[in-house]
Amino acid sequence: MATVDREKxxxxxxxxxxxxxxxxxxxxxxxxxxxxxxxxxPRKGGWAYTLGSATLVLILLQxxxxxxxxxxxxxxxxxxxxxxxxxxxxxxxxxxxxxxxLWGAYVLILVIGLHMLRTALSASYKRPRELNWVSGALLFxxxxxxxxTGAMLPMDNAGYWTAVVVTNIPHYIxxxxxxxxxxxxxxxxxxxxxxxxxxxxxIWVLPFLLFALIGGHLYLLRRHGEFGAxxxxxxxxxxxxxxxxxxxxxxxxxYPTTRIERRYAAPRDVTDFFPFQLGxxxxxxxxxxxxxxxxxxxxxxxxxxxxxxxxxxxxxxxEWFYLPLDQLLVLIPxxxxxxxxxxxxxxxxATLFIVLPFIDRSPHRRPLQRPEVLLPGLFFATMVVILAxxxxxxxxxx
Amino acid sequence: xxxxxxxxxxxxxxxxxxxxxxxxxxPALGYLLSPLFEQRRRQSFRVGAVDxxxxxxxxxxxxxVVSGEAYDTTPVERVVYxxxxxxxxxxxLTNTCTHMQCNVHWQEDLNQFLCPCHGGLYDMExxxxxxxxxxxxxxxxxxxxxxxxxxxxxxxxxxxxxx
Lengths: 398, 163
Hints:
The complex is a heterodimer of chains A (398) and B (163). Chain A has 398 residues and is an all-alpha fold. Chain A is built from 16 helices and 2 strands.
């Protein structure tokens, strides 16, 4: 059949087909594509499951715009600002690219937040997907690290004072803190070495860890399949046990998931990743990239005056996603509390966050059936919002 | 050729990996840690005459300071708050907040130093009197020299307390 069709096709297409056939015979592209595209995913709730792929697309966009910024930016204490001033004011599209890098970071942080919220509410992190959550949580912290190191690089007033405050925070760690600050700064003061070290962390160290972890995160996703949410596991028949058994019997790979309660082993209805889930993924990504494209052009990225270590008027303000933490710094007085507040409180919160799958061990998946997770989560969210509101108030009253 | 036993293979592999690890770690770690062992190149900078500064009024003077760290040789403008006390003592305060090292500034009407970052407060002599700062404002390591009948302030690129 296939050979007949191929002979009827135009010679040009036949030649292209032959080239593809030659490559495919050696690289096995078709097989891999088939494996990747025709994997089963839960049918219901597909829009909510686009956030992970959107995160990946946004990270790749950061890599892309970041590489373009590298073509002109120099990580020199004297010239970083000058090179950015050139990018902003002389390079025709420089301001746009830089704007996309900044707005890309903003949107990325928002989308990661939604992705985590979705995962937490649906308890998708439960056995056997604990490591998906742990790697995701670490990826989130790496992203925040990228955001804060990136904010230091412009060496305008905003970047310089961010560098001063952020590199100062480690010195409150008991015993080794001062040494850590010296290592990051390359001395007691923020200077040339601070910038090159932060730059290396921003463009190599963190991205390297990020992409390595992304590899693991995606491998785990494919290994266990998308969990979806409780809506994908409802039973309608009179004998739910029989329905579940039947579902498991007819499950398509990667289902049934092993090491999970039987009723969550295979979703009720699945669909192939291609075309509908992939289509939704593409639509969401296009919308997000378009938002970044427009915001990058309309608002761009701010560039303050050149860094002035002698300023008596400049008021350093944190990026919006660090405002709650910054407000915490305002509220915690004196040395020992500062160390406890930053590293104790934050450390505990971060640890609880990372090990969430090992704390929430109930068989329930609906949020309302997991008050032991939902209530502390809401409490934490409320605290963050209150800190942010107080922080905004403080900044506007300055 | 004689086949390796499992134990021999493990010994060779472990020794080899250890050797490679050491060769990579020692220079890299030393390179990374070198700022910890570096001495600041101490330098002195002339700030200016202080006789005209009004009593009990913290007054900001600026001077180009070379940090003396790493390969840094470019002077960076820094602030010295000169406080001439009516009791005859004169302070050369840095304006680096001891909380997160933002620049503090003197508020004439409120008679205090304010740090705009997190609301740290200091009195005229640099004592921390409010907000999160854990310790007083340090002074620049400084000296006064008599030049042509005027008292001239010189500072070094060091603080008298590490913060």
